[in-house]
Amino acid sequence: MGSMLEVSEVHTVEVGYDEFCGALAARDLKPLWRMARQLMPETPLPTTRPWLWKWDQVLPLAKRAGEIVTIERGGDRRVLAFANPGLNGLPYTSTTLWGAIQYLGPGENAPAHRHTPSAVRFVMTGHGVSTTVDGDECEMEPGDLILTPNWNWHDHNNRGDEPMVWFDGLDLPLVSSLEAVFFENHPRDRQAVEGRNLSQQRFAAVGLREAGAESPPAHSPLLRYRWTETDRALASLHRLRGGLAVSLEFVNPLTGGPAVATFGNEMHRLFPGGRTPTRRKTGSSVYVVFRGAGRTVVDGMEMRWGAGDVFVTPSWSAVDHEAFQVSDLFAITDAPVLRALHLYREEETGEPQPITGTFDPGR
Amino acid sequence: MGSMLEVSEVHTVEVGYDEFCGALAARDLKPLWRMARQLMPETPLPTTRPWLWKWDQVLPLAKRAGEIVTIERGGDRRVLAFANPGLNGLPYTSTTLWGAIQYLGPGENAPAHRHTPSAVRFVMTGHGVSTTVDGDECEMEPGDLILTPNWNWHDHNNRGDEPMVWFDGLDLPLVSSLEAVFFENHPRDRQAVEGRNLSQQRFAAVGLREAGAESPPAHSPLLRYRWTETDRALASLHRLRGGLAVSLEFVNPLTGGPAVATFGNEMHRLFPGGRTPTRRKTGSSVYVVFRGAGRTVVDGMEMRWGAGDVFVTPSWSAVDHEAFQVSDLFAITDAPVLRALHLYREEETGEPQPITGTFDPGR
Amino acid sequence: MGSMLEVSEVHTVEVGYDEFCGALAARDLKPLWRMARQLMPETPLPTTRPWLWKWDQVLPLAKRAGEIVTIERGGDRRVLAFANPGLNGLPYTSTTLWGAIQYLGPGENAPAHRHTPSAVRFVMTGHGVSTTVDGDECEMEPGDLILTPNWNWHDHNNRGDEPMVWFDGLDLPLVSSLEAVFFENHPRDRQAVEGRNLSQQRFAAVGLREAGAESPPAHSPLLRYRWTETDRALASLHRLRGGLAVSLEFVNPLTGGPAVATFGNEMHRLFPGGRTPTRRKTGSSVYVVFRGAGRTVVDGMEMRWGAGDVFVTPSWSAVDHEAFQVSDLFAITDAPVLRALHLYREEETGEPQPITGTFDPGR
Amino acid sequence: MGSMLEVSEVHTVEVGYDEFCGALAARDLKPLWRMARQLMPETPLPTTRPWLWKWDQVLPLAKRAGEIVTIERGGDRRVLAFANPGLNGLPYTSTTLWGAIQYLGPGENAPAHRHTPSAVRFVMTGHGVSTTVDGDECEMEPGDLILTPNWNWHDHNNRGDEPMVWFDGLDLPLVSSLEAVFFENHPRDRQAVEGRNLSQQRFAAVGLREAGAESPPAHSPLLRYRWTETDRALASLHRLRGGLAVSLEFVNPLTGGPAVATFGNEMHRLFPGGRTPTRRKTGSSVYVVFRGAGRTVVDGMEMRWGAGDVFVTPSWSAVDHEAFQVSDLFAITDAPVLRALHLYREEETGEPQPITGTFDPGR
């Protein structure tokens, strides 16, 4: 038996266009014909704006936060989020990505908790800190990438005598818009530690895994990617490929897939000698300059960067890079999500894009 | 060589807390410690609200739109979106899903175009209409589900003498927040037609596919799911399983995965006899009552529904259903996205939830 | 520390070539240089030979087996294997596939057991028989395909008043060469029956599956593929594609992959009008003529077939078919194994192959 | 329309049982009821026998082959296959695996060719040799594993002044029984070399891959696994896990799956202190002792081994190991094939198995 729904018997009320529009609003209905073009543009119209944060402006504020944001004021989350001005005051760097700087002073401890948004920490400066992830105490050195994936317990501990500053990358905006954020505090400030750098010991060489059928987890079981290794891989790839840039993805060694299911983690080494080809891709990226200096052009706007700077490139923007000296940029991107949903596109535009302005971070 | 970033040499400015907060804002930085709880709640705090749209309120407006929204006014997109009141005026039904009612009068044609958001059409009433999808003219009858996946050309044509009303389901909010919407008009109003119901002919029986290695597409190559088949499968499954409800997913016959990569499509048959167990799951659903009558309780609020009504259940809300007569509900859901990103959770709450209020659609 | 293995200190014995070869044999060593060409031919040198078994020669023997092979003589396995003459007396139809004819008289029961080789039954003639597979009593009618996959309990029961004859297809040669055959008798002759044609009821329509995340099994959960459905799908596909032949694969509706992991099951409908293009592929196939008449040319040798005949085509042989009337051929093939191991190749040879002889089944 | 096959009209010939069996043979039919138990044993009845080849017996023969098997006699394939005595004279080590020792003298070159069977080379002793694989010149040092996968061009070149001896592992018996062997000689003795150790340079660190979506190949793109890395990974894993043994699998860094699709490659480090738990698994393994000394018990038979020895364990045999000193064993196994086909099983038997005899390699 089919439905009993019938149109013919319905009587419409004879109202004019304006009154009709009012009736729609009263019934929580929106007319598509008034907004079709805006909802479905020919190419993406990102609200994310290209933006740049300068290390020499951010760091003093982070340090000051370390002084005045005491524990009573929530100092255990002493995090400054890079808030994209296009996102209506939301503390997000793009519509899908959260970038922030976190400052942990000597002797401080960020208490253990877990959440469904996944996080990574890219260490910018400092020593003597470790993050414990589900019992595995991962040491942190500059350039290291530490994963604290979806629902893993984690706490950060500074046992050294200097502060550490790292970049926090999260998928929080995405997981928030999916309405799937869960959070839980650990019963204790610090988890019990099973051992130090355990995951590194499991994955000590390329192409070798412990024998036995293990069903691969959603997120990489390798939790610490050491800078010494990353540096070596960049150098090796550059010897092999040459060119203006080489790029690495951090992957799950059990699957070859993204280290974290919900965003990509990349390391780019740029060499002086000119601008890279201009590319567009769906999805945004947040870059962290680990060392070097150069510029990135985004839809004609030049952003000049140096060590410690952070910038964001929106979806489908035309992007090229130029290093003034050998430069290393860490980046997070939502490309794995777009790929998983079959929404990823990229293209190389033929000509170098004209530069039409320069981003003024001083505003 | 590591980074040159150093904290020690930085001089902070001696400002007070309020001044400090102002300095942050000036540099597009947001302090996490002031909003951690709200950004990371213990369980999802959806902005999507449970809501219900009544057929007898929507249909007259849709019909009236058919009368006064002429072609000049954009009548080729005569679509009324179910706009969730929790989403700040956005024309979305949930943070990830778009639901709408589309009205196509006799002799009318909605011109050919394509877009990266995927769409499905669930036919509520009418005859004599077809949708051509990449050259395959799919006939539409009540209860049929027609797919127009990501970047497939499609146009709708009413060759009959009565209007058709269907439910539009799209992933537009998700694809918008991923900043990955592309749109293109076809050079002609109507595509060339290669044949009628071609995809159905390719997939004429369960468990049989054309021989030869075809790499499975992201979206189902079966474009029309006929109501007669769906009805038969519901009846068959109910004979097998019994109980208060049986549920089917529309899948890609080449992979067994979701028919569309970015949202799920389901058909539920409910039987009188009591309330179903209360469940929570991450992700929202939009239900379309095809026939029958009953009620759904969402976080204690009862929504009474009949044929043609549409309602939405937010992420992690407690939900149970009760049919007053045998009822068929079509639903779209973002569960496949949450599963792909390893963010899906569900649980059955032990007790039936208390009913604390009733949704008033008359407001 | 590396190995201590050293070549330099070894003293060889001064023996001549023949003596040396003898010394190798004494130590269970074989010299590759004497057999390299034979072990590694330029293209496959199958030991499987193209062969044909005629229904009018096989059926009387099967029937006679039904008369004289009593239960005491093992009549519960009244199976005649099509033994390829190229395989040194092994009861296998090709190096990977087992084909046989099984005869079950009225009132007879083939007792319940299970084994790791997977089996399928393609019904050639008879009524009133069913096979119970893990509690699901599957009715058998001519043209039906019944699966009894790896380690599923199964028993066959003839409750009718006529004999049934079916074709048995198994991966036994493959599983034997992998040394992975396990077998177990059920404690009782007949399993308890949970219901009749249960799997069919679960999968009653194309592209619809029961909602809820079920991890797909290695083998199809659909156990009975009815001839009425297969016939309909063949007719539908022919309307869509036209041509001399249409081919269907039996697949797992939860994955779109092969119904059985270890061999493929196909149905081919051939139409009069000429010879199909000549093709080669790695892997062998065993064909069962369900109805019709025609011929197949294999490496130049013509095999003329009619209803009930069975023939085998070896790996990489040149094969074309010609139907003298509309013909339906069931086939099993090891192609899924070759695909899974990345060893599958196929090619179409340009010209029709010359016919150089005709297979004489009378020998 | 169904089939026209009918049983009722067939007339059987009234023959006795012996005459009937003769008639079957004449028609290339084999009666299952006379061999069911042997074809379908309760647990695998491998024809592969446990066997051991001693380095001090094999090496002198390999060296002698180097002296008398000149190029005219096929010295470019100076390979001695470990021929399992259970396999009727076939030059195979098990029903699926080929193991051999290859000897390449100073200045010698094994000319370039390719074949669908995949091969690996595990270097036992020697220096100054390289294998070029599709243009990538892979250096070979003791303990290194070099892949020459399915259809990759390869040639071996000894530019040093000492011989090299390596273990060859192939899937040749499997690919032969699948009748899928293809072979081709390269037009030149030596391929052009694009570079040295290129694949190593691409994969220079764990968990890092070149950015950009590359569809993963069937076989690992990493072609050389250096012993220094393997040794380090074994040591690291032992620090982490402790115990009598640690085991590594060589995997494809782009997928985490087996380095070669058709057989597994493993490295085991055993420590003195007792016998490992007794295990059975489907599928055979061939072990190569790289260093150390110990014993392995297979179905009660003890095989004592030292550096350079090779032994094979059949499917479903009870196996345990004991090291008398720290020992490293390379192994190949068909487990990935059995897993891909859903035929893999393993179990730990409770008690240590009794030792009932000792293998006498002197025979």
Write the layout of secondary structure elements.
4 copies of one chain form a homotetramer.
Chain A: H1 17-26, E1 29-31, H2 36-39, E2 51-53, H3 55-68, E3 79-82, E4 98-104, E5 109-115, E6 119-125, E7 129-133, E8 136-140, E9 145-148, E10 154-158, E11 164-170, H4 172-177, E12 183-185, E13 195-196, H5 198-202, E14 208-210, E15 224-225, H6 227-241, E16 245-250, E17 264-270, E18 279-281, E19 285-291, E20 293-298, E21 301-306, E22 310-313, E23 319-323, E24 327-333, H7 335-340, E25 346-348, E26 357-358
Parallel strand pairs in A: 8-13, 21-26
Antiparallel strand pairs in A: 2-22, 3-4, 4-11, 5-10, 5-12, 6-9, 6-11, 7-8, 7-10, 9-15, 16-17, 17-24, 18-25, 19-22, 19-24, 20-21, 20-23
Describe the overall structure.
The structure is a homotetramer of 363-residue chains. In chain A, the strands form 5 sheets. The first copy, chain A, has a 6-stranded antiparallel beta sheet with strand order 2-22-19-24-17-16. The first copy, chain A, is built from 7 helices and 26 strands. The longest helix of chain A has 15 residues, at 227-241. The first copy, chain A, has one domain: Jelly Rolls. Helix content of chain A is 17%, strand content 34%. Chains A and B meet through helix 1, strand 1, helix 3, strand 3 and helix 4 of A and helix 1, strand 1, helix 3, strand 3 and helix 4 of B.
